[in-house]
Every structure is written in C-alpha cells, then in structure tokens.
Amino acid sequence: MAAITACIFDLDGVIVDTAVYHYKAWKQLANQLGFDFTEEANEKLKGISRKESLELILNWGGVSKTDAEREDLAHRKNNWYVEMISEMTPREILPGAEEFLKSLKIDGYKVALGSASKNAGIILAKVGLTDYFDSIVDGNIVTASKPDPKVFLKGAEMLGTAPAECVVFEDAIAGIEAAKAGGMKVIGIGSAATLSGADLVIAGLHEMSIEILKKL
Ligand code: BG6
Ligand code: MG
To answer: Which residue has the CA at smallest separation from atom 14 of ligand 1?
Structure first.
C-alpha cells in the first residue's frame, strides 16, 4: 500500500463554512419560485456544480425553465452567494483547518484544493489561506461535477503525485464517490451515517493529525 504524500481538500464545508451560504442562496431562489426544499435534500447539492444543482432544484419543485431562464436563475443565486462571501473573514475558517494545513507544510506534504466552486479563489483570498496550497483546482479549471473524479485527478496531476498517494478531505457524498472513483483514500468530514463510503469519518479538521494520516 502506497504511503500518503499529498492531501487534496474540498473547500466548502471542509475548510470554510460556506455550505450554509450555498444552502441559504438556493433556498431563497426556490422560495421565489414558490417551493421549498429540506436540509436532507440539500445534502444532494453538496459538491455538485452550480448548473447541476439548479437542475436538481427545478426538478424537486416540478418547475421547467428555458436555457436562458436557467442562466438567469443561476446568475441570481450566485449574486446572492457572492454578496454573502464578500463579507467573509479568517474567522470563518473551520476549527482546526489552518492548524492542520500548517502541520502539513512543516512535514513536507503536498497540498491541493479540489473544489467544484468557481468562487474558490475569492474565498481562499478572503480568509487568507491561498498560500497553503501548492495547486488550486476549482470549477473554472474542471467543469465536470463530482462524483466525476476529474477535479481530484487534476489536483494529483498538478502536484505530480500518483492518486494512490493522495488523500481527499470531503464533506459531500458526491465528493467521497469522486475520490474513490479516482483511486484515492478519502476522509469524510461530517457524520459517519451520511458519509459511509469514506475510509474514515471525522467531525472536522480539528480531529485530524499527521499521526492519523500515517495510519491510513
Ligand atoms: C461546491 C459546493 O463546493 O461548489 C456546491 O459544495 C456548489 O454546493 C459548487 O454548488 C459550485 O459552487 P459555485 O461557487 O461555483 O456556485
Ligand atoms: Mg464541500
């Protein structure tokens, strides 16, 4: 079994608590269209691209829209979302995330971001974490939505690391599936009941350490 030499992080819900902003903005859009969706349904949106999330939401509401209207709705949701993230500060880094990134640097691990978000660069800059990443793969570079493994495979390629030497940190079911499909280890962030496909599930990066990484 290959030893882990690189870590690839999802962003929303792993490093920063933006999952809640995505939820709020989508909910606002659904409510404007005259329906609602549950937090349970929202789990299915995590890790999924903006375009695909909108398709799912419109399906749940039984609403059909033209391509041009879809463009407009996705744009509307993103404007609300960008407004919310423009207020972000380093205080919104999730507990333990910066400390763990720091310890990875000290121990010489390679670090990449593997996010579906087209707003990933703005968020990392807002919270001051950009410099911890050797490579950044976001929704502008890879448009295939998780569970497609491309976003993580691109990250491994940019780091020059074999997939078997990478571990992915993910809070989304689709992200866990993407990491597995890419031949990588995966640590779920959240509840073990929801993220049962992961090699290990922790509540957050505050529970993570180099020792755990070495035992994977
Ligand atoms: C992922 C989120 O990180 O990014 C999804 O988990 C989101 O909820 C996706 O839809 C795309 O984000 P954005 O910022 O490009 O709309
Ligand atoms: Mg996420």
So the answer is: 117
- Residue carrying the six token digits 């939401």: 57
pLDDT number for residue 119: 97
Please give the model's pTM, rounded to 2 decimal places: 0.94
**Beta partners for 12?**
16
Q: Does the beta carbon of 46 lie inside 6 Å of ligand 1?
A: yes
Cβ neighbours around 43 below 10 Å, total: 19
Q: Cβ(145) to ligand 1 under 6 A? A: no
Q: How far apart are CA 17 and CA 96, in angstroms?
A: 13
Ligand that comes closest to the CA of residue 10: 2
Q: How many CA atoms lie within 13 A of 200 on its CB side?
A: 18
pLDDT tens, residue by residue, 166-214: 999 999 999 999 999 999 999 999 999 999 999 999 999 999 999 999 9
Query: Catalytic amino acids?
Result: 10, 12
Q: Which tokens in the block code for residue 200?
A: 């290990």
> Length of the chain, please?
216
What is the rounded CA–CA span in Å between residue 171 and residue 215? 21
Nearest residue by C-alpha to atom 13 in ligand 1: 117
